[in-house]
């Protein structure tokens, strides 16, 4: 258990962590994958190549050290990461491996500063935090396993349909190979998909938002064929688009995620950019099926008409319920959206009179820069922060 002496020692090492920077986690990952190569089948190796995971882990370690006296400040981050971990089927033994390599990394990179006192403090601090995650993840595993249609770990699913939603996005409807039910989810959540791409040396696990409302029988994910940063191609998305067909089997983890729709008996505004529309599509279908009496507004931005996903499905839902939408195309006047005529970046000032700024709940999903802009616009228009909800892509990224 952490005591005051441990806390003081942890705080004293913050300058050391900051001076080491991401080099600390680069050394850590290299060490861990050398000694435990089996973990390459769990970690996103593309993020390793781009450096995103190294930066994310360093920031998480630094944040933990800085908030060691007030871990409540990290509660939302803990919940988000715990959900993400369950979509990889992380187990308690994985924490033991990670902890050992973290301590040895500190010892190897800072042998003079890593005294017995520092080692004891960081060992206790890591074990304390790990147990928080283990406990919460065990709760999530148990809830999903015991629910109707629930399971634990990876379960084989068959692709029963594959539909192009736009130039870059394709939807896959997945049904359990065993013919059983599937556990319910809350619109906005995602599933972990486990595959072995032809071009990969390892098993790969990726998370994809559920883009339809719950039905107890199938899941729908909508995947963008993407390229990651620094020229590293979207390995799994390309594999799904090009090599996975109707009748093929992939493995799926139960639904997870702490970004989801919550009914507040108030108007709703769904705001997305690019493939960020996928969780919004699940929410939109759910709101239509439940006959939401309050107004719903759908706002979307994408590059052009060829990149505009779910056009017919969205229009049908909005028309059926007499809900409003605005869509922006980023590329040039000749590419302006036929639905609303907007071109360029999404701006909300001109829509202020149409939006429920004082009473509505706003759900946002898209690239970091887009969401940052939308959050700033909403707050400048007087929307309270507790009514703004967003999901961030990437390894522990934040606004």
Automatic annotation (TrEMBL):
Enzyme Commission code(s) on record: 1.14.12.17
Cofactor note: Binds 1 FAD per subunit. Binds 1 heme b (iron(II)-protoporphyrin IX) group per subunit.
Protein name from the UniProt record: Flavohemoprotein
Catalytic reaction equation(s): 2 nitric oxide + NADPH + 2 O2 = 2 nitrate + NADP(+) + H(+); 2 nitric oxide + NADH + 2 O2 = 2 nitrate + NAD(+) + H(+)
Binding site for heme b: 85
CDD domains for this protein: flavohem_like_fad_nad_binding (cd06184), HmpEc-globin-like (cd14776)
Enzyme class: oxidoreductase
Taxonomic lineage of the native organism: Bacteria, Pseudomonadati, Pseudomonadota, Gammaproteobacteria, Vibrionales
Cofactor or coenzyme needed: FAD; heme b
Gene designation: hmpA
Matches recorded under PANTHER family: FLAVOHEMOPROTEIN (PTHR43396)
Ranges for domain FAD-binding FR-type: 152-262
Residue span, Globin domain: 1-138
Similarity remark: Belongs to the globin family. Two-domain flavohemoproteins subfamily.
Site feature Involved in heme-bound ligand stabilization and O-O bond activation, where: 29
Residues of the site described as Influences the redox potential of the prosthetic heme and FAD groups: 84, 391
Binding site for FAD: 190, 206-209, 392-395
Protein's organism: Vibrio gelatinilyticus
One annotated GO biological process: response to toxic substance
Free-text domain note: Consists of two distinct domains; an N-terminal heme-containing oxygen-binding domain and a C-terminal reductase domain with binding sites for FAD and NAD(P)H.
Chain residue ranges for the region called Reductase: 149-399
């Amino acid at each position: 258990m952490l005591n005051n002496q441990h806390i003081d020692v942890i705080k004293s090492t913050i300058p050391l962590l900051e001076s080491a920077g991401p080099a600390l986690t680069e050394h850590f990952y290299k060490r861990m994958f050398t000694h435990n190569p089996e973990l390459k089948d769990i970690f996103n190796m593309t993020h390793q190549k781009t450096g995103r995971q190294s930066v994310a882990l360093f920031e998480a370690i630094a944040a933990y050290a800085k908030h060691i006296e007030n871990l409540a400040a990290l509660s939302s981050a803990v919940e988000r990461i715990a959900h993400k971990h369950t979509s990889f089927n992380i187990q308690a033994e994985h924490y033991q491996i990670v902890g050992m390599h973290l301590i040895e990394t500190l010892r190897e990179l800072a042998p003079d500063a890593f005294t017995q006192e520092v080692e004891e403090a960081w060992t206790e601090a890591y074990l304390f935090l790990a147990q928080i995650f283990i406990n919460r993840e065990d709760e999530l595993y148990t809830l999903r396993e015991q629910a109707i249609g629930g399971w634990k770990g990876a379960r084989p699913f068959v692709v029963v349909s594959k539909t192009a939603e736009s130039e870059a996005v394709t939807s896959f409807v997945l049904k359990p190979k065993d013919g059983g039910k599937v556990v319910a989810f809350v619109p906005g959540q995602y599933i972990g998909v486990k595959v072995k791409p032809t071009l990969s040396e390892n098993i790969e696990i990726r998370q994809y938002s559920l883009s339809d409302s719950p039905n107890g029988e199938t899941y729908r994910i909508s995947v963008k064929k993407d390229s990651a940063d620094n020229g590293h191609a979207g390995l799994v998305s390309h594999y799904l688009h090009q090599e996975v067909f109707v009748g093929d089997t992939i493995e799926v983890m139960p639904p997870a995620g702490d970004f989801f729709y919550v009914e507040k008996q108030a108007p709703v505004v769904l705001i997305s950019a690019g493939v960020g529309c996928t969780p919004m599509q699940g929410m939109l279908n759910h709101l239509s099926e439940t006959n939401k009496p309050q107004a719903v507004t759908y706002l979307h931005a994408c590059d052009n008409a060829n990149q505009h996903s779910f056009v017919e499905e969205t229009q049908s839902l909005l028309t059926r319920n007499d809900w409003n939408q605005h869509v922006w195309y980023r590329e040039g006047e000749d590419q302006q959206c036929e639905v609303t005529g907007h071109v360029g970046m999404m701006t909300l000032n001109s829509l202020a009179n149409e939006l429920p700024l004082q009473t509505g709940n706003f759900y946002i999903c898209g690239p970091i820069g887009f969401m940052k802009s939308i959050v700033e616009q909403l707050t400048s228009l007087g929307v309270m922060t507790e009514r703004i909800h967003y999901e961030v892509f990437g390894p522990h990224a934040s606004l």
